[in-house]
Specification:
The protein is α+β, with helices and mostly antiparallel strands and about 180 residues long. It has two domains: about 80 residues, no CATH class; about 90 residues, Thiol Ester Dehydrase, Chain A, CATH 3.10.129.10. Helix content is about 35%, strand content about 25%. The chain has a four-stranded antiparallel sheet with strand order 1-4-3-2. Helix 1 runs parallel beside helix 3. The longest helix has 17 residues. The protein is elongated. The termini are far apart.
Length: about 180
């Protein structure tokens, strides 16, 4: 199977690169949230004026009617323009993967999930990266309202194949206490 780009797809990639070279604005250091929001609105307006927002939308609605391949091309070129080697895996997918990896060991036989806090996305993850997770108990105490259960909080770190921490978070579960009825 030949997965190389068609001449139209290659031309589209060239158009994306050309537009980004002429228009890309990397975010500056912001003094505050209002400044960051104002910058984001200006950048989104510039993208929209170039019809780079809603790429797959029909042209009559401001899009380009782009194919899924063209959307993938845009995403890859946009990531490269920001210094990444390829598209970046969405951070929430990385978080869900790390949580999923820890469920079997930590809470699959336990009780309800009570929450997740202190989430930090520390490094980008790229397609093909391998993510593993390691958890440490931060606290464990008896539940005041349900004596047969305890409340346990873990800190989990997700790492890539180079051992670099890519995501860190704390989560809390209600778990059955040993020997409790």
């Amino acid at each position: 199977m030949d997965l190389s780009w068609t001449p139209e797809e290659a031309a589209f990639a060239g158009e994306v690169r050309e537009w980004l070279a002429a228009n890309l604005e990397l975010p500056p250091a912001f003094a505050g949230f209002d400044e960051e929001v104002a910058w984001g609105r200006r950048w989104q307006a510039k993208l929209a004026a170039g019809r780079w927002v809603g790429l797959s939308w029909p042209a009559e609605y401001g899009g380009r009617g782009a194919s899924p391949v063209q959307v993938a091309i845009f995403n890859a070129e946009y990531a490269r323009a920001h210094g990444h080697p390829d598209v970046v895996v969405h951070p929430l997918l990385v978080l869900c993967t790390a949580v999923g990896l820890s469920v079997e060991d930590l809470s699959e036989a336990g009780g309800p999930f009570l929450g997740i806090n202190q989430v930090e996305f520390l490094r980008p993850v790229y397609p093909g990266d391998t993510v593993t997770a390691r958890s440490t108990v931060l606290s464990a105490r008896a539940s005041e309202s349900r004596p047969a259960f305890g409340i346990v909080t873990w800190r989990t770190e997700g790492q890539n194949q180079r051992g670099e921490v890519v995501v860190r978070y704390e989560r809390t579960n209600l778990v059955a206490r040993r020997g409790a009825r």
